[in-house]
Design goal:
five-stranded mixed beta sheet, alpha/beta, homodimer, 243 residues
């Protein structure tokens, strides 16, 4: 049976890949992915065939993977972070309905929420939500409901896709919504280029975050009511009772 | 300056550790952790000094790490999954306030939510929440508010610590709360012993989950309104519009 690995490569640095993901890529004849991610791993897997499709061509990319597998090749479809967090794993199963003779194996990786958290300190620790601000495939009303629901229930919130050229004011809109329930003084943090060249982070208040311009390579963290700044690090305690 | 790595070792299998975590442990003189996690890695790091403290002695474990570091040793504090997701990273920063001469570096890993998701198929994919059902350090009212808020906003929900000897009916209580907003037919999944011997999973409805007995080695996934079962896998589509 032909096999496709759908593998998360982590935030970007080779040493943040798991051994399992490295093994899958080594076992593969073809490595397929979005151009940027393929460029990140290319040098570490010499002799492999690489295929890329641009952003927004995700279905084509899945079909390409299955067609290559049908030729008898072992294929790795790579995603940044974790393949199952805003990644290709779901679409691969959906497209895979047409390819019952191809086996899928999902290999998890370090997603931006936990990779970025390690840079900021310990912002997640307790209950948290991931919310993508991209309304390309999700109606904005749904995103709004999630921002409000998560804020009201005092979750730590991690925002993916906080901005793009077309959505330059979405983070501001999101902060305004969260401030209906979260204090403007809530401790927040941003991390950019996690695990890649130019990695950096900043800790600030929610009020300050509202007026901060971020790009699509940034992951944003909004604390819960207990989150604090400790020596420049963003830290959420484990519980609500004193330990 | 003395250094402590706070490293997530992933779900348990050595090949799910990142290269960075392996390097940190190799560089360390002492590896400290909860007994079960130390036993998982021991064989792969021969010649290291290992120290353990039992469950519920987390503050002692942190103090131990800092005291060892102060002796000039390089220390790794290990956690299962990711060190920043219900892990020791937060407490290490809190205890670390008393040890300004010791540097902390957090190394992220694959947490049970994404490790378990890979076993079930692609249950997360889109916006999701992690909620721990343990009320040891969090008032139950807070957990309840989060279960309700997350369900109302149609998040995929991943439950950590779904059960214990003292909390054998908590999953049932949680399911009843989630069913106020989620359909009893919502696709759910459980994964046990992720990445370890005896790994297994099951896909079922929320109604069935309510009457399923799970243990503390199980991670539970509750889909959103779009989650479906595809050939025995739990799959959440990427968006709410047709791609």
């Amino acid at each position: 049976m032909s096999k496709i690995y759908v593998a998360g490569i982590g935030p970007g640095a080779y040493d943040q890949m798991t051994g399992k993901a490295i093994r899958a890529l080594n076992e593969s004849d073809v490595i397929i992915g979005y151009t940027v991610y393929v460029d990140l791993v290319k040098e570490h897997f010499p002799g492999k065939e690489f295929m890329t499709t641009p952003m927004k061509k995700e279905v084509d990319r899945c079909v390409l993977a299955f067609e290559e597998a049908r030729k008898g090749k072992t294929v790795s479809m790579i995603c940044s972070g974790d393949a199952g967090v805003y990644g290709m794993a779901g679409l691969m199963y959906e497209v895979g309905v047409n390819y019952p003779d191809v086996e899928l194996e999902i290999i998890s990786g370090v997603t931006a929420a936990t990779g970025g958290a390690a840079v900021l300190g310990a912002p997640l620790i307790h209950d948290f939500c991931l919310i993508s601000l991209s309304d390309l495939l999700t109606p904005w009303e749904k995103i709004e409901a999630r921002l409000l629901g998560a804020s009201q229930a005092d979750f730590v919130i991690c925002l993916y896709n906080p901005s793009s050229k077309k959505r330059h004011d979405y983070l501001k809109k999101a902060c305004d919504l969260m401030m209906r329930y979260k204090s403007p003084e809530t401790v927040c943090g941003i991390v950019y280029h996690i695990g890649r060249e130019g990695e950096g982070s900043r800790v600030m208040t929610l009020k300050e975050l509202r007026d901060t311009q971020v790009d699509m390579f940034t992951t944003v963290f909004i604390g819960n009511s207990q989150t604090k700044e400790l020596n420049g690090k963003m830290v959420t305690p484990r519980g609500y009772r004193n330990v």
